[in-house]
Amino acid sequence: MATPVKVYGPPVSTAVSRVLACLLEKEVPYQLIPVNMSKGEHKMPEYLKIQPFGQVPAFEDEDISLFESRSICRYICEKYAKQGNKDLYGDGDNPLVKASIDQWLEAEGQSFSPPSSVLVFQLAFAPRMKLKQDQGAIRQNEEKLKKVLDVYEQRLGESQFLAGDKFTLADLSHLPNAHYLVNATDMGELFTSRENVGRWWSEISSRDSWVKVVGMQETA
Amino acid sequence: MGLKLHGLALSTCTARVATAIYEKGQDFELVAVNLTAGEHKQPSFLAKNPFGQIPALEDGDLTLFESRAITSYVAEKYKDSGHDLNRHNNLKEAALVKVWMEVESQTFHPIIAAIVYQHLIAPLFGQKTDQAVIDANLEKLKKILDVYESKLKSSKYLAGDFFSLADLHHLPYIYYFMKSPWTSVVNDRPHVKAWWEDISSRPSFKKVAEGMTIGQK
Q1: B88: which chain A residues are within 8 Å (Cβ-Cβ)?
Q2: Taking burial as the number of CB atoms within 10 A of a residue's CB, which of B57, B114, B117, B181 is the most buried?
Q3: What backbone torsions phi and psi does residue A50 show, to the nearest 5 degrees?
Q4: pLDDT digit string, tens, across residues B86-144
Q5: Which range of residues forms the domain containing residue B44?
Q6: Nearest CA-CA distance, residue B120 and chain A, Å
Q7: Is residue B85 part of a domain?
Q8: What is d(CA B153, CA A100) in angstroms, rounded to the nearest whole number?
């Protein structure tokens, strides 16, 4: 039996949860290794060897050591193409399908993630960490996120999921930030007030894989 | 029918795609998008990129946006010609290319883009340069390039001893950054400097850089 892959980092981390969701979709056995961020473990020399920017997650599969959650997800889909959800990153045969997934994965990384990450930090995490909120940043990024979700509203009126009619990595990549916005802030209305986005959010967030990841976050 | 690249020669993201196409020994038709006239926000362009940004690629019936998705598509479609940009025959190397593509996308890009915007682009629109933004991002850039310096001691390029999309994606923004007063951030780091001089002297990029005229008088 193959050694389980290793994922380093806490499940409450958005980037770690992105990788966990992918592993569950692909039915890849994994070992979750804690990284004590409150004690600064992610900035210590031992950890920096596997993630030189001092961020979570880090990932190991036999002799391959990776970081950056979206690249880890792509790797998992390619290496374990024949098991679990086979539509997550194209079927290997049609480059047009993969290109569409990459396009919307990039849209997530370049357009959705920056404003949503600021809002998640400011609204969900800063209060817990007793940090002062930056109201200017909140307002500015809320406006940016609205514009992005307007584009999604139009797109999701044309196809069931972002890259086409199947759930893919492009949708999965949105789960971590959107989950916090909908469940831990008052920004959920941005999703639920848009009919197609609301429908899409409801479908992707109720997938078994994501429900399981949320369970891990809540018991962490 | 060949590739049509909708964008502008001086645009960083258009240049990213153009370089990849040339690296694969292919050609394209550049279809200029008149940003000054707001063409990128018109319905005919929004049909190609609903986010209203350049570039967009047309390849027959396929239209793609997001430059890093386009380069990946080009690298894969033409994998049997030109330079091997994605190491598709080696799972481990391909994975490392993906890692450093994401580093550029998530860690490097926001910082360098902020500096280039303030220094080169804001003045074009009559906006005041925010030096505080530049200063804060220069400090972040130094820390990022310290990691690159360390990495480039153990391999010639970012993902290994081979030039790949991971390096290519850095070309356009560093090119404009090197027109700024802060080039020491690159030049003070010998391995980063050597890497930059190597990748920016590739014929594919030299051809593209001829059109990258922002800031030139």
Answers
A1: none
A2: B57
A3: -100, -15
A4: 999 999 999 999 999 999 999 999 999 999 999 999 999 899 999 999 999 999 999 99
A5: 3-77
A6: 21
A7: no
A8: 36
